């Protein structure tokens, strides 16, 4: 049942989040789906739409409809995780919707009149445009992602998570050795020691990764910004983010509300172990704050788009 929340500050138009089918190994797709699910739990008319073209400018209208159908039939079948409420938007919904694009989508392919850009990483780093359209409403997942993007108000934080606490938990088993994940951290591959025996995690399922986390002591993470570092901590494995040359621990943590339990470099391993309990407490508090983030997001869209 949707949470009983006053709807006066919610937009009257539907909100459509552009995303691909659910992928448990893609943090970006997970949070895009999670935002839709969270909004619908609050009673918001929210939907998903795969990245595509609308061909609205084509005349006659039937030609645009034909090209749109032909484009969409080539897209992969859309699906969501069984625990989430993520329906697809119809053409009628798209016509009047507020469209939310992640920063990886270039331009405005849906030719929407009302556009929101959600920075799940630095603009242009993983695709999309480095410079954003000034007419767009911009929100960010981490403050670091909005650095140099002007003007972005500091109240535009929008962060939701889908924590797999059903999968990642400490089973108090004997531990030895380490594991390693690269993901988006290819720029620090040179720091992998010769003869490294860490168990590789890239490409494994959540269940497989949780199994490794429960039998190893240290998780070396080359991706600077990923939930897997927190998942490791939940499973009792010490996460160590491999430092990027020129990026200090202070600058890396800037903008994070979850600052404990994760080591930035091996010299912080003891500190990460000592602050794991604080991380667990911080994660519980963060979940409450996420709802406030979403409500503020909706109020801003209501003010801008009605």
Can you put this structure into words, describing what you see?
With 306 residues, the protein is of the alpha/beta class. The chain is 29% helix and 12% strand. 32% of the residues are buried. The chain is elongated and about 65 Å long. The strands form two sheets. Strands 2-1-3-4-5 form a five-stranded parallel beta sheet, covered by helices on one side.
Summarize this entry quickly.
This protein has 306 residues and is of the alpha/beta class. 29% of the residues lie in helices and 12% in strands.
Identify the strand order in the major beta sheet: 2-1-3-4-5
Give the percentage of residues in beta strands: 5-15%
- Give me the Rg, rounded: 21 Å
**Topology pattern, helix = H, strand = E:** EHEHHEEEEEHEHEHEHH
Q: What can be said about the biggest beta sheet?
A: 5 strands, parallel
Task: Assign a percent range to the helix content.
Answer: 25-40%
Number of helices: 8
Flag low-confidence runs: 1-5
Q: Which class do the helix and strand fractions yield? A: alpha/beta
Shape: elongated
Number of strands: 10
Mean pLDDT: 88
Cα distance, first to last residue?
25 Å
